Amino acid sequence: MSSRVEVLLGRTLGIGVAVSTVLLAIGLVMTLTVGGPVAGGLLNAGLLVLMGTPMTRVLISCVEYIRERDWFFAISGIAVLLVLAVTVWQATR
Question: Which of 59, 69, 62 is nearest to 13 (CA)?
Fold first, then answer.
């Protein structure tokens, strides 16, 4: 995997964690002060971003593996994405 992709993966993970932290912190402060559905929405959004961050990393890796024609890792990554997708689908039913 190229250093360009490794930098992209690092930035993706950093941004995802930072965004989820901000959403969770604002949601927590709002829950403790004013409450309401907006606070719960921010907390849910923070958790979704936090859970989606590693999924985004796997997706970026899959695209890069396909570009490099590294089929073993591409198929492995796609299998991981399918497992994650089924897990999320089952959790939301």
Answer: 59
Encode pLDDT of 16-44 as tens digits: 999 999 999 999 999 999 989 999 999 99
Q: How many CB atoms are located within 10 Å of the residue 42 CB?
A: 20
Q: Which residues contact 74 (CB under 8 A, 6 or more apart)?
A: 62, 65, 66
30: Cβ contacts below 8 Å, ≥ 6 apart: 36, 38, 39, 42
Nearest to 77 by CA among 67, 66, 90, 92: 66
CA distance 10 to 33: 35
Output the CA–CA distances (angstroms, integers) from residue 45 to 38, 72, 93, in the order listed: 10, 34, 18
What is the rounded end-to-end Cα distance, in angstroms, of the chain? 36
